[in-house]
Write a structure and sequence with these properties.
Blueprint (H helix, E strand, L loop, with lengths): L10 E8 L2 E6 L2 E7 L5 E4 L7 H11 L7 E2 L5 H4 L2 H8 L3 E3 L4 H4 L15 H6 L14 E3 L13 E4 L8 E5 L2 E7 L2 E5 L2 E3 L7 E3 L5
Parallel strand pairs: 4-5, 5-6, 6-7
Antiparallel strand pairs: 1-2, 2-3, 3-4, 8-9, 9-12, 10-11, 12-13
Bound molecules: zinc ion.
Length: about 210
């Protein structure tokens, strides 16, 4: 794929989403950093081709250490394209739902998009986007829905197929789960990180 430059004015920090959650919007997609009580953090999604430098600079502003993992909501190119380069640089695993694995190991490509469905800029432009194959190699690890995930303590993995077969979202119940420093804890609201394409953060204040 030919190099495509992304200008800095197409990059928007989303620094105060919720306690323990930062974001970065790159053109039309978002990545998130989820921080944990022990000071570690996890990168959710890995954006567009050639965005690895932007994600690294943003991460280095906020954290002194590498993330404990890169976790993918799904395997579309606008969520995975910097994952391989970043994982090699940070020497961390990449987690995704097993049903996304064929799209992330170079076996399958996603079907061609239906330009008549859904509407919006992404749908209209989707025929020109690369669909794969993507191969994340030996760094790929299976993400088990419904089970506790050691790299994201306090979060639940929800398998929500539809957008893709192995699409996942992340749910954090309310509680005193986030510790901004070693001396205090902070009450946090229920929070969902859904597909980072649209309405990426869903606050579930009235949901039970
Ligand atoms: Zn997608």
């Amino acid at each position: 794929m030919d190099y495509v430059a992304i200008s800095e004015n197409q990059v928007t920090p989303l620094d105060a989403i919720e306690p323990g959650v930062l974001g970065l919007r790159i053109v039309f997609v978002n990545v998130f950093a989820v921080t944990h009580p022990d000071g570690s953090w996890t990168l959710i999604d890995a954006a567009l081709p050639f965005s690895d430098g932007m994600i690294r600079r943003w991460a280095e502003k906020h954290f002194t250490a590498s993330p404990n993992a890169i976790v993918l909501t799904h395997g579309h190119f606008d969520h995975v394209s910097a994952a391989g380069v970043l994982a090699e640089h940070w020497e961390v695993p990449i987690y995704a739902h097993p049903m996304e694995f064929p799209y992330l190991t170079g076996e399958w490509e996603y079907p061609a998009p239906n330009v008549g469905a859904g509407g919006g800029l992404m749908t209209l432009l989707s025929p020109v986007y690369p669909r794969g194959p993507v191969d994340l190699g030996g760094r790929l690890r299976p993400l088990a829905a419904g089970m506790s995930f050691a790299e994201m303590p306090g979060w639940q993995i929800l398998h929500i197929p539809g957008h893709t077969p192995g699409h996942v979202s992340f749910f954090r119940p309310a509680g005193r789960g986030f510790r901004p420093n070693l001396h205090s804890t902070k009450q946090v609201s229920r929070l969902m990180i859904a597909c980072a394409c649209y309405s990426p953060i869903v606050r579930l204040m009235d949901w039970c």
